[in-house]
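We emphasize that the prediction below concerns an isolated chain of 334 residues; any contacts that depend on oligomerization or on bound cofactors are therefore not represented. The input was used exactly as deposited, without trimming of termini.
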Amino acid sequence: MRELEDELNDPDIWKNQEKADTLSRELKALRSIIGPYNDIKERHEEVKELSGIVEPEDTGSMQSLLDEVRDIRKQIDKLEFKCLLGGKTDGCGAIVSINSGAGGTESCDWASMLHRMYLQWAWSRGYATEIIDQLAGEEAGIKSVTFIIRGEFAYGYLKSEVGVHRLVRISPFDSNKRRHTSFASVDVIPEIDKDIDVEVNDSDLRIDTYRSSGAGGQHVNVTDSAVRITHVPTGIVVQCQKERSQHKNKATAMKILRARLYQEKRREMEKETARAYGDKKKIEWGSQIRSYVLHPYKMVKDHRTEHQTSSAEKVLDGELESFIEAYLRMTAKR
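Result of the prediction step, given as a C-alpha coordinate string:
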Protein backbone atom coordinates (compact mmCIF):
# COMPACT_ATOMS: atom_id res chain seq x y z
CA MET A 1 0.00 0.00 0.00
CA ARG A 2 2.89 2.33 0.78
CA GLU A 3 4.20 1.93 -2.79
CA LEU A 4 0.81 2.93 -4.23
CA GLU A 5 0.65 5.97 -1.94
CA ASP A 6 4.15 7.05 -2.99
CA GLU A 7 3.24 6.66 -6.68
CA LEU A 8 0.10 8.76 -6.28
CA ASN A 9 2.03 11.43 -4.38
CA ASP A 10 4.27 11.89 -7.42
CA PRO A 11 2.84 14.91 -9.34
CA ASP A 12 3.92 13.39 -12.66
CA ILE A 13 1.52 10.44 -12.25
CA TRP A 14 -1.43 12.76 -12.85
CA LYS A 15 -0.20 13.52 -16.33
CA ASN A 16 -1.56 10.07 -17.17
CA GLN A 17 -5.11 10.39 -15.83
CA GLU A 18 -6.13 6.82 -16.68
CA LYS A 19 -3.19 5.29 -14.80
CA ALA A 20 -3.75 7.63 -11.85
CA ASP A 21 -7.42 6.67 -11.68
CA THR A 22 -6.55 2.97 -11.79
CA LEU A 23 -3.98 3.34 -8.98
CA SER A 24 -6.49 5.37 -6.95
CA ARG A 25 -9.07 2.59 -7.22
CA GLU A 26 -6.47 -0.01 -6.20
CA LEU A 27 -5.48 2.07 -3.18
CA LYS A 28 -9.10 2.58 -2.18
CA ALA A 29 -9.73 -1.19 -2.39
CA LEU A 30 -6.67 -1.91 -0.22
CA ARG A 31 -7.68 0.68 2.36
CA SER A 32 -11.17 -0.84 2.54
CA ILE A 33 -9.52 -4.05 3.76
CA ILE A 34 -6.54 -2.82 5.78
CA GLY A 35 -8.46 -0.07 7.64
CA PRO A 36 -11.15 -2.39 9.08
CA TYR A 37 -8.50 -5.04 9.83
CA ASN A 38 -6.49 -2.60 11.94
CA ASP A 39 -9.66 -1.48 13.76
CA ILE A 40 -10.59 -5.08 14.56
CA LYS A 41 -7.06 -5.83 15.74
CA GLU A 42 -7.09 -2.81 18.05
CA ARG A 43 -10.50 -3.69 19.49
CA HIS A 44 -9.40 -7.29 20.03
CA GLU A 45 -6.37 -6.17 22.01
CA GLU A 46 -8.55 -3.92 24.17
CA VAL A 47 -11.01 -6.73 24.91
CA LYS A 48 -8.15 -9.10 25.66
CA GLU A 49 -6.67 -6.62 28.12
CA LEU A 50 -10.00 -5.87 29.80
CA SER A 51 -10.88 -9.54 30.14
CA GLY A 52 -7.89 -9.96 32.42
CA ILE A 53 -9.03 -7.12 34.66
CA VAL A 54 -12.81 -7.53 34.96
CA GLU A 55 -13.98 -9.68 37.89
CA PRO A 56 -16.50 -12.45 37.09
CA GLU A 57 -18.83 -11.01 39.75
CA ASP A 58 -19.06 -7.75 37.80
CA THR A 59 -21.94 -8.92 35.61
CA GLY A 60 -22.43 -5.52 33.97
CA SER A 61 -18.84 -5.33 32.74
CA MET A 62 -18.87 -8.98 31.71
CA GLN A 63 -21.97 -8.40 29.60
CA SER A 64 -20.34 -5.38 27.96
CA LEU A 65 -17.33 -7.51 27.07
CA LEU A 66 -19.54 -10.23 25.59
CA ASP A 67 -21.40 -7.64 23.52
CA GLU A 68 -18.09 -6.26 22.28
CA VAL A 69 -16.87 -9.76 21.33
CA ARG A 70 -20.09 -10.42 19.37
CA ASP A 71 -19.72 -7.11 17.54
CA ILE A 72 -16.07 -7.89 16.70
CA ARG A 73 -17.19 -11.27 15.37
CA LYS A 74 -19.68 -9.54 13.06
CA GLN A 75 -16.98 -7.17 11.82
CA ILE A 76 -14.66 -10.13 11.16
CA ASP A 77 -17.40 -11.86 9.14
CA LYS A 78 -17.95 -8.72 7.07
CA LEU A 79 -14.23 -8.33 6.41
CA GLU A 80 -13.86 -12.01 5.57
CA PHE A 81 -16.68 -11.65 3.06
CA LYS A 82 -15.03 -8.61 1.50
CA CYS A 83 -11.74 -10.48 1.18
CA LEU A 84 -13.51 -12.96 -1.10
CA LEU A 85 -13.55 -10.21 -3.72
CA GLY A 86 -9.91 -10.44 -4.71
CA GLY A 87 -10.24 -11.04 -8.45
CA LYS A 88 -8.56 -8.72 -10.94
CA THR A 89 -11.89 -7.27 -12.10
CA ASP A 90 -13.96 -7.69 -8.92
CA GLY A 91 -13.65 -3.99 -8.12
CA CYS A 92 -15.02 -2.94 -11.53
CA GLY A 93 -18.49 -1.81 -12.43
CA ALA A 94 -20.87 -4.44 -13.81
CA ILE A 95 -22.43 -4.62 -17.27
CA VAL A 96 -25.65 -6.59 -16.82
CA SER A 97 -27.70 -8.08 -19.65
CA ILE A 98 -31.13 -9.67 -19.16
CA ASN A 99 -32.90 -11.59 -21.92
CA SER A 100 -36.40 -13.03 -21.69
CA GLY A 101 -36.81 -16.70 -22.51
CA ALA A 102 -39.49 -18.48 -24.50
CA GLY A 103 -42.99 -17.72 -23.33
CA GLY A 104 -43.86 -14.35 -24.79
CA THR A 105 -45.46 -11.83 -22.46
CA GLU A 106 -44.85 -13.93 -19.33
CA SER A 107 -41.10 -14.10 -19.86
CA CYS A 108 -40.90 -10.44 -20.90
CA ASP A 109 -42.62 -9.45 -17.66
CA TRP A 110 -40.23 -11.68 -15.69
CA ALA A 111 -37.23 -10.03 -17.37
CA SER A 112 -38.66 -6.65 -16.34
CA MET A 113 -39.03 -7.87 -12.74
CA LEU A 114 -35.38 -9.00 -12.68
CA HIS A 115 -34.30 -5.64 -14.10
CA ARG A 116 -36.14 -3.86 -11.29
CA MET A 117 -34.65 -6.24 -8.70
CA TYR A 118 -31.07 -5.41 -9.72
CA LEU A 119 -31.78 -1.68 -9.92
CA GLN A 120 -33.27 -1.78 -6.40
CA TRP A 121 -30.21 -3.67 -5.15
CA ALA A 122 -27.88 -1.12 -6.77
CA TRP A 123 -29.76 1.93 -5.46
CA SER A 124 -29.86 0.51 -1.92
CA ARG A 125 -26.04 0.45 -2.01
CA GLY A 126 -25.74 3.94 -3.43
CA TYR A 127 -24.53 2.67 -6.82
CA ALA A 128 -25.14 4.55 -10.07
CA THR A 129 -27.00 2.88 -12.95
CA GLU A 130 -27.14 3.55 -16.68
CA ILE A 131 -29.32 1.82 -19.28
CA ILE A 132 -27.40 1.18 -22.50
CA ASP A 133 -29.92 -0.69 -24.62
CA GLN A 134 -33.49 -1.88 -24.11
CA LEU A 135 -36.05 -3.70 -26.26
CA ALA A 136 -39.62 -3.60 -25.01
CA GLY A 137 -41.96 -6.59 -25.08
CA GLU A 138 -44.86 -6.53 -27.50
CA GLU A 139 -47.52 -6.41 -24.75
CA ALA A 140 -45.63 -5.90 -21.49
CA GLY A 141 -42.20 -6.07 -19.92
CA ILE A 142 -38.94 -6.21 -21.85
CA LYS A 143 -37.43 -8.66 -24.31
CA SER A 144 -33.91 -7.59 -23.39
CA VAL A 145 -32.02 -4.89 -21.54
CA THR A 146 -28.36 -4.03 -21.02
CA PHE A 147 -27.37 -1.66 -18.25
CA ILE A 148 -24.30 -0.70 -16.23
CA ILE A 149 -24.08 -0.64 -12.43
CA ARG A 150 -21.18 1.44 -11.15
CA GLY A 151 -19.96 1.19 -7.56
CA GLU A 152 -17.29 -0.43 -5.42
CA PHE A 153 -17.09 -4.17 -6.20
CA ALA A 154 -20.28 -4.11 -8.30
CA TYR A 155 -18.96 -6.83 -10.61
CA GLY A 156 -17.48 -8.82 -7.74
CA TYR A 157 -20.93 -9.09 -6.17
CA LEU A 158 -23.04 -9.51 -9.29
CA LYS A 159 -20.91 -12.20 -10.97
CA SER A 160 -22.95 -14.53 -8.76
CA GLU A 161 -26.05 -13.79 -10.87
CA VAL A 162 -24.95 -15.26 -14.20
CA GLY A 163 -27.31 -17.94 -15.45
CA VAL A 164 -30.98 -18.71 -16.01
CA HIS A 165 -33.51 -17.46 -13.45
CA ARG A 166 -36.85 -19.30 -13.17
CA LEU A 167 -40.16 -17.85 -11.95
CA VAL A 168 -43.25 -19.84 -10.90
CA ARG A 169 -46.46 -17.86 -10.25
CA ILE A 170 -50.11 -17.38 -11.09
CA SER A 171 -49.98 -15.38 -14.29
CA PRO A 172 -51.47 -11.86 -14.15
CA PHE A 173 -51.93 -12.18 -17.94
CA ASP A 174 -53.94 -15.42 -17.81
CA SER A 175 -57.69 -14.88 -17.41
CA ASN A 176 -57.99 -18.48 -16.14
CA LYS A 177 -55.50 -17.76 -13.31
CA ARG A 178 -53.30 -20.72 -14.14
CA ARG A 179 -49.79 -21.24 -12.82
CA HIS A 180 -47.00 -20.39 -15.28
CA THR A 181 -43.25 -20.97 -15.33
CA SER A 182 -41.10 -18.29 -16.94
CA PHE A 183 -37.39 -18.07 -17.65
CA ALA A 184 -34.95 -15.22 -18.21
CA SER A 185 -31.18 -15.30 -18.61
CA VAL A 186 -28.79 -12.95 -16.85
CA ASP A 187 -25.22 -12.26 -17.93
CA VAL A 188 -22.77 -10.04 -16.07
CA ILE A 189 -19.38 -8.87 -17.29
CA PRO A 190 -16.94 -6.37 -15.76
CA GLU A 191 -16.79 -2.81 -17.02
CA ILE A 192 -13.07 -3.19 -17.66
CA ASP A 193 -10.55 -0.39 -17.37
CA LYS A 194 -8.81 0.89 -20.49
CA ASP A 195 -5.48 -0.33 -19.14
CA ILE A 196 -6.66 -3.96 -19.44
CA ASP A 197 -5.41 -4.97 -22.87
CA VAL A 198 -7.99 -6.46 -25.23
CA GLU A 199 -7.01 -6.72 -28.88
CA VAL A 200 -9.81 -5.87 -31.34
CA ASN A 201 -9.03 -5.77 -35.06
CA ASP A 202 -11.17 -3.44 -37.16
CA SER A 203 -11.23 -6.05 -39.93
CA ASP A 204 -13.06 -8.42 -37.55
CA LEU A 205 -15.95 -5.99 -37.01
CA ARG A 206 -19.21 -5.48 -38.84
CA ILE A 207 -20.84 -2.20 -37.85
CA ASP A 208 -24.49 -1.48 -38.63
CA THR A 209 -26.52 1.62 -37.83
CA TYR A 210 -30.27 1.79 -37.38
CA ARG A 211 -32.96 4.09 -36.06
CA SER A 212 -33.42 4.00 -32.28
CA SER A 213 -36.67 2.64 -30.94
CA GLY A 214 -38.54 4.45 -28.22
CA ALA A 215 -41.83 5.53 -26.71
CA GLY A 216 -42.60 7.90 -29.57
CA GLY A 217 -42.41 11.64 -30.09
CA GLN A 218 -39.21 13.20 -28.90
CA HIS A 219 -37.94 9.87 -27.60
CA VAL A 220 -37.48 8.45 -31.08
CA ASN A 221 -34.47 9.55 -33.10
CA VAL A 222 -35.15 10.50 -36.70
CA THR A 223 -31.61 9.57 -37.75
CA ASP A 224 -29.81 6.22 -37.75
CA SER A 225 -27.92 6.92 -34.52
CA ALA A 226 -28.21 3.47 -32.91
CA VAL A 227 -25.17 1.22 -33.45
CA ARG A 228 -24.84 -2.56 -33.63
CA ILE A 229 -21.36 -4.12 -33.72
CA THR A 230 -20.77 -7.76 -34.61
CA HIS A 231 -17.41 -9.37 -33.80
CA VAL A 232 -17.30 -11.81 -36.72
CA PRO A 233 -14.76 -14.38 -35.34
CA THR A 234 -16.74 -14.96 -32.13
CA GLY A 235 -20.25 -13.98 -33.23
CA ILE A 236 -20.58 -11.60 -30.28
CA VAL A 237 -23.10 -8.83 -30.97
CA VAL A 238 -23.41 -5.62 -28.96
CA GLN A 239 -25.58 -2.59 -29.54
CA CYS A 240 -26.26 0.81 -28.05
CA GLN A 241 -29.02 3.33 -28.69
CA LYS A 242 -29.03 5.45 -25.55
CA GLU A 243 -27.45 8.54 -27.12
CA ARG A 244 -28.63 10.73 -30.02
CA SER A 245 -25.04 10.77 -31.25
CA GLN A 246 -23.98 7.83 -33.42
CA HIS A 247 -20.36 8.49 -32.42
CA LYS A 248 -21.15 8.18 -28.69
CA ASN A 249 -23.24 5.05 -29.22
CA LYS A 250 -20.39 3.47 -31.18
CA ALA A 251 -17.89 4.29 -28.41
CA THR A 252 -20.17 2.73 -25.78
CA ALA A 253 -20.78 -0.35 -27.93
CA MET A 254 -17.03 -0.80 -28.44
CA LYS A 255 -16.51 -0.54 -24.70
CA ILE A 256 -19.03 -3.31 -24.09
CA LEU A 257 -17.53 -5.43 -26.88
CA ARG A 258 -14.06 -5.19 -25.32
CA ALA A 259 -15.54 -6.24 -21.99
CA ARG A 260 -17.35 -9.22 -23.54
CA LEU A 261 -14.22 -10.38 -25.38
CA TYR A 262 -12.19 -10.10 -22.19
CA GLN A 263 -14.80 -12.06 -20.24
CA GLU A 264 -15.06 -14.71 -22.95
CA LYS A 265 -11.31 -15.26 -22.76
CA ARG A 266 -11.51 -15.61 -18.97
CA ARG A 267 -14.35 -18.11 -19.18
CA GLU A 268 -12.40 -20.24 -21.63
CA MET A 269 -9.47 -20.24 -19.20
CA GLU A 270 -11.81 -21.27 -16.36
CA LYS A 271 -13.12 -24.17 -18.43
CA GLU A 272 -9.58 -25.31 -19.20
CA THR A 273 -8.68 -25.15 -15.50
CA ALA A 274 -11.80 -27.11 -14.58
CA ARG A 275 -10.96 -29.83 -17.11
CA ALA A 276 -7.38 -29.98 -15.89
CA TYR A 277 -8.48 -30.61 -12.31
CA GLY A 278 -11.34 -32.93 -13.19
CA ASP A 279 -13.98 -30.52 -11.94
CA LYS A 280 -17.39 -32.07 -12.63
CA LYS A 281 -19.26 -28.81 -12.03
CA LYS A 282 -20.25 -26.88 -15.10
CA ILE A 283 -18.82 -23.41 -15.55
CA GLU A 284 -20.91 -22.48 -18.50
CA TRP A 285 -23.37 -19.83 -19.51
CA GLY A 286 -27.02 -20.88 -19.48
CA SER A 287 -27.34 -23.29 -16.55
CA GLN A 288 -30.37 -22.70 -14.33
CA ILE A 289 -29.16 -21.18 -11.08
CA ARG A 290 -32.15 -19.93 -9.10
CA SER A 291 -35.89 -20.45 -8.74
CA TYR A 292 -38.36 -17.83 -7.53
CA VAL A 293 -41.65 -19.43 -6.46
CA LEU A 294 -44.65 -17.20 -5.73
CA HIS A 295 -47.32 -19.94 -5.89
CA PRO A 296 -48.43 -22.29 -4.28
CA TYR A 297 -45.92 -21.18 -1.64
CA LYS A 298 -43.27 -18.47 -1.52
CA MET A 299 -39.60 -19.35 -1.77
CA VAL A 300 -36.43 -18.31 -3.53
CA LYS A 301 -33.81 -21.05 -3.82
CA ASP A 302 -30.33 -21.01 -5.33
CA HIS A 303 -29.64 -24.43 -6.86
CA ARG A 304 -25.84 -24.04 -6.66
CA THR A 305 -25.51 -23.17 -2.98
CA GLU A 306 -28.85 -24.57 -1.70
CA HIS A 307 -29.37 -21.24 0.05
CA GLN A 308 -33.06 -20.35 0.23
CA THR A 309 -35.54 -17.98 1.85
CA SER A 310 -39.31 -17.66 2.10
CA SER A 311 -39.05 -13.86 1.81
CA ALA A 312 -39.56 -13.84 -1.96
CA GLU A 313 -40.93 -10.28 -2.06
CA LYS A 314 -37.88 -8.92 -0.25
CA VAL A 315 -35.55 -10.65 -2.71
CA LEU A 316 -37.48 -9.21 -5.66
CA ASP A 317 -37.16 -5.82 -3.96
CA GLY A 318 -33.37 -6.15 -4.15
CA GLU A 319 -32.35 -7.96 -0.95
CA LEU A 320 -29.75 -10.20 -2.60
CA GLU A 321 -26.92 -10.06 -0.06
CA SER A 322 -27.47 -13.52 1.46
CA PHE A 323 -27.51 -15.18 -1.99
CA ILE A 324 -24.43 -13.28 -3.14
CA GLU A 325 -22.53 -14.13 0.04
CA ALA A 326 -23.47 -17.82 -0.14
CA TYR A 327 -22.21 -18.01 -3.72
CA LEU A 328 -18.92 -16.22 -3.01
CA ARG A 329 -18.22 -18.42 0.02
CA MET A 330 -18.95 -21.53 -2.03
CA THR A 331 -16.64 -20.54 -4.88
CA ALA A 332 -13.89 -19.59 -2.43
CA LYS A 333 -13.80 -23.19 -1.18
CA ARG A 334 -13.17 -24.69 -4.62
